[in-house]
Amino acid sequence: MTASDSYIAHLKECLAGLGPVSVRRMFGGAGVYADGVMFGLIADDVLFLKADAASKPAFEAEGLGPFVYDGKGKPITMSYWRAPERLQDDPDEMVSWAGAALAAARRAAA
What we know:
This protein is of the alpha+beta class. Helix content is 32%, strand content 35%. The protein has a six-stranded antiparallel β-sheet with strand order 1-2-3-4-6-5. The longest helix has 19 residues, at 91-109. The protein is globular.
């Protein structure tokens, strides 16, 4: 699981409309934060966004799946779903999806 410096820089540029965003490296990948709340995950230069019951249908409609990793011999599914690749080329849509992910992360934290 990796998060290259160039991908992180590009992602921060795409998310500029969301407000201040920070990226913290962890376990070879990185977490994406706004206001101290993690709403995204980068693994192998792929963005996954936080989803919950309210936002998961949008990911499913795109045919996208959750982030899954191998946890001691069994798959562990997280509540972060692969972001549509087209968002990399559309900062406005990226901010919309990221805003929904941030809202889901805030609901989960409450």
